[in-house]
Request: fold
Amino acid sequence: MSQHFETQAVRTQMERSQHKEHSAPIYMTSSYKFDDAEEMRALFTGEQEGNIYSRYANPNVDEFITKMAILEGTDDGWATATGMAAIFTTFAAFLKQGDHILSSRSVFGSTHQLLHNILPKWGITYSYADLDKTEEWEKLIQPNTKMIFVETPSNPGIDIIDLEWLGNFSKKHGAMLVVDNCFATPYLQQPIKYGTDLSIHSATKYIDGQGRALGGIILGRNELIREIEGFARHSGPALSPFNSWILSKSLETLAVRMDRHCESALKVATALEANPEVELVKYPFLPSHPQYEIAKKQMKAGGGIITFVPKGGLERAARFLDALKMFSISANLGDTRSIATHPATSTHSKLTEEQRNEVGIEQGTIRLSIGLEHVDDILADIEQALKASVLEPEETSK
Ligand SMILES: *Cc1c(COP(=O)(O)O)cnc(C)c1O
Reply:
């Protein structure tokens, strides 16, 4: 019988060395020795398996990949230095001049930059589709659409798409389906179960979960990962052994951390929705979320990210951030420390106001990443900041 997620996350480890260490050592080596000329030759031709150079493979990187692939329910992966390197590597490995990407409109700010400013240099075009308007997707597919790329839940709009529907849609149109699974982690959602070809993570977020290390990973079936390898071995987005060691260790606590992130976030989202100073709250497991039923179907819990809009627009949002006493104002998410961000002036400031509105970012939208502090302290900080930031009537009319 296959073991549970938690057990696999703790017990999947590389082979022990002659020291019989209990916790995995770090292999800080850039290259590896060959026993003789024949072994070197065989490794380079691929006749024999083994380590050559850490741009290709390293024991710590391999351990991280093996663990993530098991947890995601697939057979292979490729680890990268950052989440963006994972996304760019995926685009570069599979797309060529003349190809088209159909992407969810709501994507991470730097993903938008890749689609809009970088890929067009190589003749690769894109269109955006809205996660909540699947009836329009059929019209947006083009004969040259090679890849469908989505974030679900999306950042920061917290929109959701039905992965089962999307898996069938992609298959029908012969397009490769790539999901940025960063917000959910493999603990809450496994897109590959629904026909997704590649699942991507910024491991910088919940996988590390403690705000220490950058990392990324691409997960999927072996034949696709070999194509990724063909690009990555020579272009060099490799994850370092040290960060792999950190991330692999972090996976041991992913389930317990996610349980607490989700439990606290649901309490905070519920409290925000009941607060008269709040105009709108988006959280996947709130029954008011437009795709609540889909979220319930494909996610184990709602995740740790909430977006909300306090009454009073941009001015109120700025005052709310300044009034927070415990929350950190930071662009990161998925940390042990609770974080508040204002997407319109930070992560999504490169978009026009119209583009932001289209992805559900209002001038006053605030994104909260609910940390692992006691939930009563988190709630108290939000409540006092909402109180302290109320605008006077004459300020509201400005
Ligand atoms: C942070 C993030 C990324 C980029 O990851 P980095 O590790 O910062 O490069 C990509 N997608 C989503 C959804 C993210 O939140």
User: Anything to note?
Assistant: Residues 82-84, 108, 151, 155, 180, 182, 202, 204-205, 214, 216 surround pyridoxal-5'-phosphate (CB under 6 Å). Residues 5-253 form a domain with the Aspartate Aminotransferase; domain 2 fold (CATH 3.40.640.10).
